[in-house]
Amino acid sequence: MAMKNGKKLGSFVLAIVALIVGLVLFYGDRVVISFYGGGLVFNHSTSMREHRVSVGGTGFCVAKSYFVFSNSLHPGSNVGLILAAELEGLEPWNVYLERIDFYENKKKLSKKEVKEVNRKRIDMEIGYLRDKGEVVDMLWRERMKGAKESKEGGYVRLVSDSPLAANYEYYLMPEGRADYSHVIGCNQGARCRLESRYSDAIWYKVDFDESVLEVVGSIESRVREFMEHSICD
């Protein structure tokens, strides 16, 4: 009995180590910042002046008002591309909030009205992944091991009891896909996150409200188009 428990504990520790390695590979210095107490500062700029960030050797030029953290705008920063936009037209989130006078009117708004505003926000992360996705695929297989499967509108719905899958209540993968290069994780009545591959070296994540899950295909195509137009090499 003790031997079995020891094996289970060993497998769990290995899974945690694999997760940390994967996070470091994807997020780079952002993980190091968290471990060592460095601070990320929110960006409130509404400037449309472009700022260049290199991801896996590819340059992206994006207006400063898109960046979630002002650290991204510092010379030599490795925080990377963490962006926020309005759902419909991908207008920079800071610009959108200024246009609707959100901060001036916030005290007058109910919690429900504030929530309605935030439902229109999507977050985008663009990062470089070494090993062309093998590490991410390994991590996903570990997360989804033993997951219960069911079909749902062109997707396979996965519900896993694994602690590694605890971030979301359920996951969706396109039917017929053999790898984990395109996964959506959702919490009921809250937020979802799409993780997918832009190229062999570049991956992206899109965070959005579950209420717009039905149009995730449209959201993703606009995000990919935004990425293509932002490349400035």
Characterization of this structure:
With 233 residues, the chain is α+β, with helices and mostly antiparallel strands. 33% of the residues lie in helices and 26% in strands. It contains seven helices and ten strands. It has helices at residues 2-27, 29-35, 93-99, 102-105, 111-118, 134-143, 216-230, and strands at 50-55, 58-63, 81-86, 121-128, 148-152, 155-159, 170-174, 182-186, 191-197, 202-209.
| Overall number of strands | 10
How many DSSP helices? 7
SSE class: alpha+beta
Largest beta sheet: strand ordering:
3-4-10-9-8-7-6-5
Q: Roughly how much helix do the residues carry, as a percent range?
A: 25-40%
* Overall radius of gyration: 19 Å
Brief descriptors of the model:
alpha+beta, 10 strands, globular, 7 helices, eight-stranded antiparallel beta sheet, 26% strand, 33% helix, 233 residues, two-stranded antiparallel sheet
Please describe the topology of this protein.
Layout: H1 2-27, H2 29-35, E1 50-55, E2 58-63, E3 81-86, H3 93-99, H4 102-105, H5 111-118, E4 121-128, H6 134-143, E5 148-152, E6 155-159, E7 170-174, E8 182-186, E9 191-197, E10 202-209, H7 216-230
Antiparallel strand pairs: 1-2, 3-4, 4-10, 5-6, 6-7, 7-8, 8-9, 9-10
Helix pairs in contact: 1-6
Can you summarize this structure?
This protein has 233 residues and is of the alpha+beta class. The protein contains seven helices and ten strands.
